[in-house]
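If I may wish for something, please walk me through the protein I am sending here so I can picture the backbone:
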Amino acid sequence: MDFTSVDTWMALLTLTFLEIVLGIDNIIFISIAANKLTEKEQPRALLFRILMLLGLSFLIGLKATIWSFESSIISIHLNGQSIILFLGGIFLLYKSTAEIHHKLEGDPEFRRSHPLGNRAESRRQCGAQPPARTRRR
């Protein structure tokens, strides 16, 4: 590796920037998830998070191929690291989509108990009246 090359320094700068952005993203995600817990549940969640990180660090270290598939078009070699990264990505997509849906749609219990769901509550909060019904002749 040539440390005098501009390409090497650009790659290092890019990776450093990505690590910083993803680290901030993880902090935001964990803080959102932790705020939903009660104060009694937060220490237990912290212990669970530490145990999961230890387990994941072990699984990430698994570099040996678990399953492989080769053809003339594609070659796939799965190890512990690739499986964890794939499943973690799927989990983050699910959780972020669920959070966005929850923020946009509100509480699902309210929607289940009211036929108009959040629309009726939104109209009530802003003082809007439902449209007047007219009789057709």
